[in-house]
Specification:
This protein is an all-alpha fold. The protein is 75% helix and 0% strand. It has five helices and no strands.
Length: 190
């Protein structure tokens, strides 16, 4: 038995040669490690360092991108059990959504960093002047927090809109291609 199927995708049966088995084992092991790490992260989500990072969004982004990775890894071993346009459809849906979620989560970290820099430049951690009360101190901190959270909500909204436009454009393109290919009568064996 050769190490690789010389025919590639011959659509006869599963490619369970050395490369196909290696890809399946890697996908299974990587999935198990990722799920264990996601569970550990979820369990520690109330830790002060992790709490500010929107863990559900981060885990969703990683899992959506992981689904795409697993599909890419098992294409060769499955050897055509699902059509090539199904892989393209999965790529055009899962990849933009995963990248969009990841970008929204990273944007939230950037806003937290900017907010901390603002706190360092302002006088909120210095002793209160004699005319200011604790109420004014906490009111100023709350105003700074509101500004950063509204900006985060705006970024998340724009990213969600971009993901929606991307998925809609992919759907329109797929429908147009389907109409073109079904309207044309091509003979495969002519």
């Amino acid at each position: 038995m050769p190490f690789l199927n010389p025919g590639g995708h011959d659509f006869i049966g599963a490619n369970l040669d050395g490369w196909g088995i290696l890809q399946m084992v890697f996908a299974i092991v990587y999935t198990l490690v990722l799920l264990v790490l996601c569970a550990l992260l979820w369990k520690q989500r109330n830790h002060p360092i992790i709490r500010m990072r929107k863990i559900p969004m981060a885990i969703a982004a990683v899992l959506v991108l992981h689904v795409y990775l697993v599909i890419v890894l098992i294409v060769y071993p499955l050897n055509g059990y699902f059509p090539c346009n199904a892989e393209f459809w999965i790529m055009s849906i899962y990849l933009p959504i995963g990248v969009g979620l990841f970008q929204a989560q990273n944007q939230q970290l950037l806003l937290i960093s900017r907010g901390q820099q603002v706190l360092l430049t302002q006088d909120v951690y210095k002793p209160l002047p004699s005319g200011k009360t604790r109420w004014q101190y906490y009111r100023n901190k709350f105003i700074i927090w509101c500004k950063s959270s509204k900006e985060q909500d705006a970024f998340e909204g724009f990213i969600a809109l971009g993901m929606l436009v991307q998925v809609r454009n992919n759907h329109l393109r797929d429908m147009a291609m389907y109409r073109l290919t079904s309207a044309a009568s091509f003979s495969v064996h002519s």
